Amino acid sequence: DVYKRQAADNEVLKVIANYERALLNMEDSDKYQEAFDAMDRHEAWDFETQYQQILSKLKLHDLSLKVNKLSGGQKKRLALANALLNKPDLLILDEPTNHLDLEMIEWLEAYFAKENMTIFMVTHDRYFLERVCNEIIELDQGELFTYKGNYAYYLEKKEARLSQEQVAQHKSKRLFKKELEWMRRQPKARTTKSKSRIDDFAEIKSRAHKRREEHEIQLEIDMERLGSKVLECHKLFKSFKDLDILKGFNYNFLKGERIGIIGKNGTGKSTFLNILTGKESLDGGKIVVGDTIKFGYYTQAGIPEKAGQKVIDVIREFGDYIPLKKGRQISAQQLLERFLFDRKKQYDFVEKLSGGERKRLYLCTVLIQNPNFLILDEPTNDLDIVTLNVLESFLLDYPGCLLVVSHDRYFMDKIVDHLFVFRGAGVIEDFPGNYSDFRIYEDSSSSDSQKEVAKVPKKKLPNATENQKSNTDQKQKISFNEQKEYQQLESKIRSLEKDKISLEKSFMEEGLEVEEIEKRSLELQTLIKTIDEKTSRWFELAAIIEGS
């Protein structure tokens, strides 16, 4: 299970794992006491708190799960948790923000800000670069360039470096012309001095003819005409077992809308996209798609893999020639070259491509269908920063409808006008602004609503002597289950408050019978009582967390 994998090489983690299991079986007081004493001996209380916090922040709640049953994203987060808990002097990370939601990414930024460790990482997350790194090393044209600053500093200095290179090359070309004239005037018999100058001429020629290879994809489509009716959602309902994804969702999409979707992992963002495109069925409600709508759907699953299929074959499935704007067309080979697949690469097998190359090929297949309603689910994963900049420029000029799920805050800030915020439990809010606007709003709302949390006495654990109880009071830390309960209570109380407001508004309806008013009054009383109970429990847990 997750505990065993984490504890395999860490004695303290083994002690914590035994203690957590003992908590689940308090009837066996001897085993509990043995586990409790081991926690004391190894000074594991603080470590346990940190351990639980890290796993909780990375949404790894069920520690009894077998590792081989975890999803790809959960395994990545487990590996990250393991690396953080080992507290290395040097931490090497390869795209650490992939498979993390926005809340996790922001927590990780704060974690690195307070930890004293050296971090060496590859990432395409530009806000993460900006906030975590104080030095950037760029691999460009086979050379390494170092920038002693964050991402904004890097952009400024790189532009200056490229300008200097252009000036230097211009000077080299002028010098080359002079040297070339001198070479042509020289007699065949050379002096020692002239031979030395001839040797220098070769180097001058090399500098003058040095060309900068710009590896940048070119995006262009011939978008289908978009009619007046785009997409209408009427009272959409969807749930899986006890998890509500949509609860009466209504929305009419308009021409040229640019909407971002944010929310914690597991709140149904990808399911929502699948529902809009007909890949997932509804439990209730209706979707009306305009007659002229042509979806382009970039999913997280990526390009469907077929054994023995070559890169060029993938594009030729759409035709040997691809239409562009103003009646122009290009061959499949030319199109692939625009997406940085040279002629040799075009005949490689798809399964041999790197992750980034597959993403580029997949993006190509989505765009060449000339969609007027583009849906992108985590499009920035595995794309390099140069390609991301090109994609952003393309999307800024894209005249169709755009719906994007992404954890890349920089990307979202540049291209979306408003957000669908998936709160969980089927609650979706429409926020008028980009991600940074939303973050400011949330932080402001949070600080306005903060209250002073009262201290409460810690509970004594059962089945122990008075002396053991005294020790427990001193060492008591919030358990993992209580930490999980605390987090769930926040969203539950928020949901109940919304139900309360809705129920209170219902009393304003005209023509209510006396029986109906009495019924709703009883519902309101029950709801208020439930909110009070859960709020009281939330304060109790908050006090334990604050005092631990």
Write the layout of secondary structure elements.
Blueprint: H1 2-7, H2 11-23, H3 29-41, H4 45-57, H5 72-85, E1 90-94, H6 102-114, E2 118-122, H7 126-132, E3 136-140, E4 143-147, H8 151-185, H9 192-208, E5 231-240, E6 243-253, E7 258-263, H10 269-276, E8 284-289, E9 295-298, H11 311-316, E10 321-323, E11 329-331, H12 332-338, H13 355-367, E12 373-377, H14 385-396, E13 401-405, H15 409-415, E14 418-424, E15 427-431, H16 435-449, H17 466-475, H18 480-506, H19 514-547
Parallel strand pairs: 1-2, 7-13, 7-14, 9-12, 12-13
Antiparallel strand pairs: 3-4, 5-6, 5-8, 10-11, 14-15
Helix pairs in contact: 2-3, 4-5, 8-9, 18-19
What does this structure look like?
The protein has 548 residues and is an alpha/beta fold. The protein folds into three domains: 2-147, P-loop containing nucleotide triphosphate hydrolases (Rossmann fold), CATH 3.40.50.300; 231-441, P-loop containing nucleotide triphosphate hydrolases (Rossmann fold, 3-Layer(aba) Sandwich); 466-547, Helix Hairpins (Orthogonal Bundle). Helices cover 49% and strands 16% of the residues. It has 19 helices and 15 strands. Helix 8 packs across helix 9. The two termini are 27 Å apart. Residues 451-475 have low confidence and may be disordered.
